[in-house]
User: Fold these one by one.
Assistant:
Number 1:
Amino acid sequence: TVMLYGRMTYVSPFARASYNLGNGGMLRVAFSSGFTPTDLIMRQPEGQIDLKQDLAALAQAPRISRRDDHAAVERTRTYEASYQVVDGSRTFTATAFSDSVADAVFLMSGDIGLAGSANLLPDLNTRGTVFNAGNFQRTGFSAALSESVTDRLEISVAGGEAGALVADPDTGRGPLRSSIRQSPRPWMTARIQAAMPFTGTRLGASYGWTDFRALMPTHQSLTGRTNQQVGWNFVGRQPLPGMLGMRMEIMAELRNLLAQGYLGI
């Protein structure tokens, strides 16, 4: 329930089903509607505890924007299916998905006069301004290969095609929201993750390529571990000694360090 320019109440259901084909692999189908289902995306294997999963659930909040001087909450309806095969240390995954986004939220910077004040909301976490880009639908597919080189080093490569947002050449002569449209674009992501012995430090780096003249919304996979990303990203985690029975970690996350993938208006 959100109180902003009135009261809005939403429910965000999600579900996932898996069918084990034995040596033939694993089939998974998933559905979500509303906010990002962190319980599906961040879930760890049985018996493992991950503070990142708990923090993601605590930080989960509705993405609020302003549309025609009324508050709106972003909702994403996703259908996804995947097929996974494990061969020793290698895992191959093929995925197809469909996203339907209502009241999509993006950050704007620079000259925001094109959007109109009735469609803007200040963002308290950045120097940007929240813009309601309206509704869009897109589909996508991907293939991913992960290799566990050792029990402390994993490498993965993924690629596919998904809908991206592009601006018409005549942007600025009419309403900004109506000038943004969906167009398919290819993408590739490479990722490496490592765990240091003795210290328990975990490091990860990834680079995601696509057509950087378009805005590629991130699709968080509901059935696999490989997600589409943009630009150069880095994450580090360092466990700390327990204090008063509490388990603590230091986490650092840097996203899109090369500042790629912005839609110029």
Number 2:
Amino acid sequence: IIGWAGRLAQYTGGISLVVAVLGSLRQQSPADVLAEVFRKPGELHVSMFENSLDGTILSVHDGPVLTANPAACKLLGVELAELQRLSIRDIFDDGHPDYGNFRNELATLGKTRTELLLRGKHGRLIPVSISAALFEENIGKCLELNTFEDISERKRMEDALRCLNEDLERR
């Protein structure tokens, strides 16, 4: 009987705790939640950078890679330290037909978006949808932010569909 009474007290205490937490969350307005989140903007930016599913690389414009998030390192198959020994231009396949336009538009407009190939470990080419932006930071240098998503699977499906259409046209 004592064991059952103890368990009942634990369960009741747990339920009371859950009810209290849910009650306090309901009392906070969305504005209050946002104010709490943005109270520490540096931590928020780091968390967004680290937890993004898209690869992100920050570099000096046309210069050395400063940092990259885990998604970028995983996609390229390299460690951050390895990536930081490269120039941002080293990760692109400069033979891609849209590469020159991408770099020119970025330099001219400060922002651009396209599909390109990135060079991963051992020269592996990875098709990506990429957005890039230039901005000046208080360090007095023009920085470049590249955010990209692997589109390998989509490209494989497009190729398969193209082959299927060609087969159908021949028949």
Number 3:
Amino acid sequence: ALEIAERLGSSEYQQRALWGLWLICNTTGDSAGSVRMAEPFGRVTGPGTDDSGPTHDRMLALALHFHGEQARARHHAQRVLDHQSRVNRIAQNSGFQFDQRVAALTVLARTLWIHGHSDQALRHGEMAVTEAVEVGHALSLCYALANGAIPAAFWAGDLATASRYTHLLLKRSTEHSLVFWQAFAEGYELLLTPSEGVFGTGPRRSLASLTNPATSPLLLDTLCTRTIAFSHGRA
């Protein structure tokens, strides 16, 4: 698709193809590839790309976060929040899936925790969820919950909040048939004790019990970070 868009000189579809490749890299755990796909997105100019700055910044923010460049990731996430473009509130109709501010707050929740600011991480995760609810965009809400609010809660050892948000993620992803995010809800339940889980009681299951076909390397990597945090006493 990218090769065809380049051959036709279509800047809009070059960006769409780069976006799709960037998503695949994130989902499969290819952090270097994520950066490699995000960087040229902002260099594509032409009709339909005038308001793509915030999208480029949030792509770089997540890519750099996964790649371990946390300071740069925070910089690009903050640029999205500082941007006053109308794109901040129409991302759900732009072809790039998520509300811009929600996506930026989600990345900040993760990077702030890594930098040792757990209270700020929890607050930014909550802000991402609140803003997603306010704009009424289910996909942005699932993104905020699965990638920001729930991870931050688990990392901080706040199982009550993690459980509440996991239940909300399951509810909204099921209502809107968002199978990819349903897999995240099912995975997060594994980290909750039976008495605090949202799927009933019973013995704790292993990762091998995750049979949702949408279970991705990104989800498995994410679950492992929660397990490591608990084993090292961060909870």
